[in-house]
Design a protein that fits this description.
Helix content is about 35%, strand content about 15%. Strands 5-6-7 form a three-stranded antiparallel beta sheet, with helices on both faces. It has a two-stranded antiparallel ribbon with strand order 1-2. The protein has a two-stranded antiparallel sheet with strand order 3-4. It has helices spanning about 15-30, 40-50, 55-60, 115-130, and strands at about 30-35, 35, 70, 75, 85, 95, 100-105. A hairpin with a 4-residue loop joins strand 6 (about 95) and strand 7 (about 100-105). The protein is built from four helices and seven strands. The chain is of the alpha+beta class.
Length: about 130
Amino acid sequence: MDIAGTARSGGGLCMTARDLARVGEPVRQHGRVDGRQLIPANWMTDMLSGGSVEAWRQCNFSGWLPEGKVPQQVVSSRQCPRRRFAVGIHGQWLYVDTSRETVIAKFSSQPLPTDDDAKHLNLALFEAIAAMA
């Protein structure tokens, strides 16, 4: 409950960076782990190609990625369809580039919960790392 006694809910994950990268690995492999389809194929198809740019533009944090969309709580962009990412507050990231077979987990402690300039820098960093793969 908040200070006024109103019910409040929040979400989040509590894990190591290595475990967060393990979450990204099945995404990189289109839901497959050790040759088995661990995540249903139709869910993966929706996550990898679904979502609505129009719906994304209606949310209050869409300014940093104008062509973004959010199928299954994972952000993607029409500008770069091979990458998927989950972004948390204060600079937490899970970045997956399926075509370059790259998974990056990044923990941070940025001063602001959300910082559009830092998001652009992070994406540039991840793209540079993925390009080396």
